[in-house]
Amino acid sequence: VYIETMVKGRRVFLEFYSNPNDFSFADLPDEARVYLERSGALQATPIERLL
Predict the structure, then answer these.
(1) How would DSSP label each residue in 2-34?
(2) CB neighbours of residue 28 within 10 Å
(3) What are the domain boundaries of the chain?
(4) Which pLDDT score is estimated for 5?
(5) Dihedral sign, CA of 16, 18, 24, 27?
(6) Which residues contact 47 (CB under 8 A, 6 or more apart)?
(7) Average per-residue pLDDT in the chain?
């Protein structure tokens, strides 16, 4: 996102309503998965995890 916006001067749009097709919490590195578990951020969609 930084390169696209700051270096290339482009606008970037992020989609928070669905996960990538191949997304799985089990595939995350242990540190990331444990962090999300401890913070209670294991909701189904990115937008739910942000709220």
Answers:
(1) HIIIIIS--------SS--TT--GGGS-HHHHH
(2) 13
(3) 14-50
(4) 98
(5) negative
(6) 16, 17
(7) 95
pLDDT tens-place string over residues 23-39: 999 999 999 999 999 99
The secondary structure element, H or E, covering residue 37 is helix 30-38
Residue corresponding to tokens 């401890």: 38
DSSP 39: T
C-alpha to C-alpha distance for 47 and 8, rounded to whole angstroms:
27
Residue 16, pLDDT > 90, answer yes
Query: In terms of pLDDT, which residue wins out, 50 or 12?
Result: 12
Cα 23 from chain centroid (whole Å): 10
